[in-house]
Amino acid sequence: MSTTQPPEVSPEPALRERVIDTIKTCYDPEIPVDIWEMGLVYAVDVSSEGAVAIRMTLTSPACPVAGSLPPEVEEKVREVEGVKDVRVDVVWDPPWNPGMMSEAARLELNMI
């Protein structure tokens, strides 16, 4: 049984903000809203050593970009200055639903 502790969260939020800004450049090609505003990113943890752990989901397990979107997120985040390592975990719990979208995303998609 492992007693590994979670990485220490960086006291400086600047790196986390740069990572989030980078995530906002990733889109599902079928939806004109970035994955952050879509509510597809559940968590972004940044350690004081520059290790980034991202928990995200997709709109459905059958999503056509399931094989390409998570690697795109990893690749782009890896290029952020100060990032030493990136891990992207795709999770299905909780299941994504349109209520997870930001108000801006719902406006863009005419859902309000």
Explain what this protein looks like in three dimensions.
The chain is α+β, with helices and mostly antiparallel strands and 112 residues long. It has one domain: Fe-S cluster assembly (FSCA) (GMP Synthetase, Chain A, domain 3, 2-Layer Sandwich). It is 24% helix and 16% strand. The longest helix has 11 residues. It is globular and about 40 Å long.
Summary of the model, kept short:
By secondary structure, the protein is of the alpha+beta class. The protein is built from three helices and three strands. The longest helix is centred in the N-terminal third of the chain and has 11 residues.
Layout of strands and helices, then pairs:
Elements: H1 13-23, E1 41-46, E2 51-56, H2 69-78, E3 85-90, H3 103-108
Parallel strand pairs: 2-3
Antiparallel strand pairs: 1-2
